[in-house]
From TrEMBL:
Protein name: Methionine aminotransferase
Keyword presence, Glycoprotein: no
Record key words, sorted: Aminotransferase, Pyridoxal phosphate, Transferase
GO molecular function list: transaminase activity
Lineage: Bacteria, Pseudomonadati, Bacteroidota, Flavobacteriia, Flavobacteriales
Pfam families, A to Z: Aminotran_1_2 (PF00155)
CDD domains named among the record's database cross-references: AAT_like
Gene3D superfamilies associated with the record: Aspartate Aminotransferase, domain 1, Type I PLP-dependent aspartate aminotransferase-like (Major domain)
InterPro entries in the record: Aminotransferase_I/II_large, Kynurenine-oxoglutarate_AT, PyrdxlP-dep_Trfase, PyrdxlP-dep_Trfase_major, PyrdxlP-dep_Trfase_small
SUPFAM superfamilies for this protein: PLP-dependent transferases
Aminotransferase class I/classII large domain mapped to chain residues: 24-374
Cofactor(s), names only, from the UniProt record: pyridoxal 5'-phosphate
Length: 378
């Protein structure tokens, strides 16, 4: 059989998750909370099921959910999206991203991505016959070299994908970065795909710089967001995309034939729950405490730590422990030490190995204690 994705295997999240399970390791690999969501949210979804919202939802998502999302974006980022034709509920941000890429990328179109890059962008681009134009983030602090970016733009550039807060590095784009991006994209027709699934996980008093905040970016952007990350329900696989109506019209043409519509009772529950901003505003503090708890517990380990500014991922540099490559080291940590993480090389340009592992700290203190006890022994 001729593969359309000859270079793609099984995702690192599946591989490491499976090994973690097999060896009964403390699992800080795939990103998901190991605690339950707010019981109020669970109850709202249960009620929606009991009330009979169990048939197809409207293709674009229920109106009340799109309306409250529109209000939330306007309050936080000052940009108004019309719920009627500029917001669509998706079965996870991953589906939103896939749909956005397949809606706009044609064969030979170039798509600029920044490496290390989350793993779902490239296969989608390849399946559309697009050309991936990777730009490596700067080594020291994972910043974007904007001159490099500018030089990578050609008449064939169709799309740029950014991700802030950034998975797997835990860094964020600053206002300065966004202004530079806006300036460089001015007078082009380039579409910006802005993956903002960790928008509510930004620490140390910093703010999330959504593409929606910048008029010159918002007018060319598809924003992708996730309820899984925000409400501790990654298994519900629900998110949304927001974009100007010309882009959203095309997006929905594809969306309707990919999933048609998404989980109906969950939409009702989330729409109710989103009405109270307290249900997501405190998330920064909640996860900052987890980050600090984890980092404090491993401060005397042999790992080099540069605290993340966003997401629920912390990169640890193990170069002072061994020069083993990160995939084999990550596997050994599972088998010998019973702790699972994600090796960063799989996301890097040419799979460059910088001796870095990613640990997810969206875990109970009990789990973080167990993890720290192990990491301090390595
Ligand atoms: N976003 C999750 C992570 O980075 C993985 C989700 C998945 O496995 N597709 O860990």
């Amino acid at each position: 059989i001729e593969s359309k994705l000859p270079k793609v295997g099984t995702t690192i999240f599946t591989t490491m998750g499976k090994l973690a399970y097999q060896y009964d390791a403390v699992n800080l690999s795939q990103g998901f909370p190991n605690f339950n969501a707010d019981s109020k949210l669970l109850k709202l979804v249960q009620e929606a099921i009991s009330e009979g919202y169990n048939q197809y939802a409207p293709m674009q998502g229920i109106y009340s959910l799109r309306e409250i999302i529109s209000e939330k974006i306007e309050n936080l980022y000052g940009h108004s999206y019309n719920p009627e034709n500029e917001i669509t509920i998706t079965a996870s941000a991953t589906q939103g991203i896939f749909t956005a890429i397949s809606t706009f990328v044609k064969p030979n179109d170039e798509v600029i991505i920044f490496k290390p890059a989350y793993d779902c962008y490239e296969p989608a681009i390849t399946l559309c016959g697009g050309v991936i134009v990777p730009i490596q983030l700067l080594d020291a602090d994972f910043k974007i070299d904007w001159e490099n970016f500018k030089a990578a733009i050609t008449p064939k550039t169709k799309m740029v994908i950014i991700n802030t807060p950034h998975n797997p590095t835990g860094t964020i784009l600053s206002e300065q970065d966004m202004l530079k991006l806006q300036y460089i994209l001015e007078d082009t027709n380039i579409i910006l795909l802005s993956d903002e699934v960790y928008e509510h996980l930004v620490f140390d008093g910093k703010t999330h710089e959504s593409a929606a905040k910048f008029q010159g970016l918002a007018s060319r952007s598809i924003l992708c967001a996730s309820f899984g990350k925000t409400f501790h329900v990654t298994g519900w696989k629900m998110g949304y995309c927001a974009a100007p109506k010309e882009l959203m019209l095309e997006f929905r043409k594809v969306h309707q034939y990919v999933v048609f519509c998404v989980n109906h009772p969950v939409q009702h529950g989330v729409a109710q729950y989103l009405k109270n901003p307290k249900n997501y505003i405190g998330l920064n503090t909640f996860y900052q405490q987890k980050r600090d708890y984890f980092l404090n517990a491993i401060q005397n380990s042999r790992f080099k730590i540069s605290p993340c500014t966003g997401t629920y991922f912390q990169i640890l540099d193990y170069s002072s422990i061994t020069d083993e490559n990160d995939i084999s080291f990550a596997e050994r940590l599972i088998k010998e030490y019973k702790i699972a993480s994600i090796p960063i090389s799989v996301f890097n340009l040419d799979n460059q190995d910088n001796k870095q592992l990613r640990f997810c700290f969206a875990k109970t203190e009990e789990t973080l204690d167990k993890a720290a006890e192990i990491l301090n022994r390595i």
